[in-house]
Write a structure and sequence with these properties.
Helices cover 11% and strands 49% of the residues. The strands form 2 sheets. Strands 1, 3, 4, 6, 8, 10, 11, 13, 14 and 16 form a 10-stranded parallel sheet that branches. A 6-stranded parallel sheet has the order 2-5-7-9-12-15, with no helix packed on it. It has one domain. The protein starts with a helix and ends with a strand. The protein is built from 1 helix and 16 strands. The chain is mainly beta and 128 residues long.
Amino acid sequence: MLGTKARNKKTAAAQNGANYNAGTSGVTCVIANGTVITGQFAATEDVRLDGVIEGDVKCDKRIVMGETGRVKGTIHAADAVIMGTIDGELIVTNTIHLKSSAKIDGKIQGKSMTVDEGAVYNGECKVG
């Protein structure tokens, strides 16, 4: 019975979308809607971005940008799932997934990319 409550909380969080982390560390930096960061931003763990960053972003792991997320600058990450807006470059060492609400004006570079119907990108794209 002792482990049941902890397991149920973890399962409920995953079902509600609270766990954005695909890694094993369980640590995610969340930048909430309404937050504006001006300047460079760096994270060693996964990032969930629903706010705005005006400057360069460096994420050592995975960045997930929600529909309200915006970046005006360059994003460097290992993996990226984009649902928001980028005005600048997206440079990813592994996989990029542009969801249907994604809008990118600038250069895209990655090892592999999935583009959902409705996603928009204008600029140079290098995949492979």
